[in-house]
Amino acid sequence: xxxxxxxxxxxxxxxxxxxxxxxxxxxxxxxxxxxxxxxxxxxxxxxxxxxxxxxxxxxxxxxxxxxxxxxxxxxxxxxxxxxxxxxxxxxxx
Length: 93
Description:
Pfam families: YCII. InterPro entries: Dimeric_a/b-barrel (IPR011008), YCII (IPR005545). This is YCII-related domain-containing protein. A four-stranded antiparallel β-sheet has the order 2-3-1-4. The chain contains three helices and four strands. Helices cover about 30% and strands about 35% of the residues. It has about 90 residues and is an alpha+beta fold. It has a single domain, classed as Alpha-Beta Plaits.
């Protein structure tokens, strides 16, 4: 895997998340998360997001200018902060 730091110019990163607990127990957190990524999308930082059909994983493609911005986006994800989801993989392209 190529590390995001190998990209010196703005680039995209596909983030894969997996559920840690039961999503039914975390509806408010997941609603907060949708709002968080909707806000980032309106600011041009999220290209697309969605769920994998019939799986407990989802993805977000973000547009970042550097590694620090990527880390900030991940660390401020409400579901990451509350241990509802975990980052499985980050693939820069």
